[in-house]
TrEMBL record:
<feature type="transmembrane region" description="Helical">
    <location>
        <begin position="227"/>
        <end position="244"/>
    </location>
</feature>
<keyword id="KW-1003">Cell membrane</keyword>
<dbReference type="GO" id="GO:0008495">
    <property type="term" value="F:protoheme IX farnesyltransferase activity"/>
</dbReference>
<dbReference type="GO" id="GO:0005886">
    <property type="term" value="C:plasma membrane"/>
</dbReference>
<keyword id="KW-0350">Heme biosynthesis</keyword>
<dbReference type="InterPro" id="IPR000537">
    <property type="entry name" value="UbiA_prenyltransferase"/>
</dbReference>
<keyword id="KW-0808">Transferase</keyword>
<feature type="transmembrane region" description="Helical">
    <location>
        <begin position="99"/>
        <end position="119"/>
    </location>
</feature>
<keyword id="KW-0812">Transmembrane</keyword>
<protein>
    <recommendedName>
        <fullName>Protoheme IX farnesyltransferase</fullName>
        <ecNumber>2.5.1.141</ecNumber>
    </recommendedName>
</protein>
<dbReference type="InterPro" id="IPR030470">
    <property type="entry name" value="UbiA_prenylTrfase_CS"/>
</dbReference>
<comment type="similarity">
    <text>Belongs to the UbiA prenyltransferase family. Protoheme IX farnesyltransferase subfamily.</text>
</comment>
<feature type="transmembrane region" description="Helical">
    <location>
        <begin position="178"/>
        <end position="201"/>
    </location>
</feature>
<feature type="transmembrane region" description="Helical">
    <location>
        <begin position="58"/>
        <end position="78"/>
    </location>
</feature>
<keyword id="KW-0472">Membrane</keyword>
<feature type="transmembrane region" description="Helical">
    <location>
        <begin position="250"/>
        <end position="269"/>
    </location>
</feature>
<dbReference type="InterPro" id="IPR044878">
    <property type="entry name" value="UbiA_sf"/>
</dbReference>
Amino acid sequence: MTDTAFEGQPVSVQADSLPGGVADYIALLKPRVMSLVVFSGLAGLVVAPGALHPVLAVVALLCIAVGAGAAGAINMWYDRDIDAIMERTRGRPIPQGRVNPDEALAFGVVLSVASVLLMGLAVNWVAAAILGFANAFYVFVYTMWLKRRTPQNIVIGGAAGAFPPMIGWAAVTGDVTIGPLLLFCLIFFWTPPHFWALALFRSGDYSRAGVPMLPVVAGEAATKRQMLAYTLLLLPIAIAPHWFGVGGIAYLVGATGLSLLFIVCAVRVMLDKTHRAAKQMFAYSILYLFLLLAILIGEKLVA
């Protein structure tokens, strides 16, 4: 998933002046972002046809968590210059000087390679390949290429956060079918309105850092129209898993109601002259995805 959850504090020390502690290295893994990544991977693992030994299931989820965290650490290494400028991110370990940048890079690379190898050796190489591709996509395509070059950065780059359900599914089945692709699409089309809601009330941060987020480049009105368009498009995508046998009746009802509320949030953002509705939509977007995945998991567990 993309880095949308951290609030920063002012820089208080110079870079490289203090050794990194355990808590700082954990922070490099973006644990709050990782939690939703792991939950979406769990959803793919649970709803996939077949079964995986509980120990291997735990290993698969651990690999997803470590792989996502490793990509986050490399992202923090690469973005350390703009993280020091943005209020939201200046409290991260590298800008604060609590972790050496080279050590953060090595930490991320080692964990990324280890997570892929462990997934391949312990579970299967299809899941490992998707995990490796997702990590590489987030680091090279989103972080290094798109983020600072185009306002469509989160549209394309958001694909990196949509892979975990596919990885979880492939861990069980060893393949990728229509089911995990639908879950991929759900998260892929959820990401832009989720992130743009944040970008609306953090546009000053992005502008100062020179990151061409949509509100900075196209303005708030255009961003709000795009958010509404994506939430409208998300409605049929969200209910599609039901029609392809991935979700049941409870999921159909839940996805329909939750998606309609998401659309209402987008309409409220369009009408709001402040950023209050955008903050509320950002918070709801996280709840929206969590509840959709929870319903899918719950249906499978009680079936």
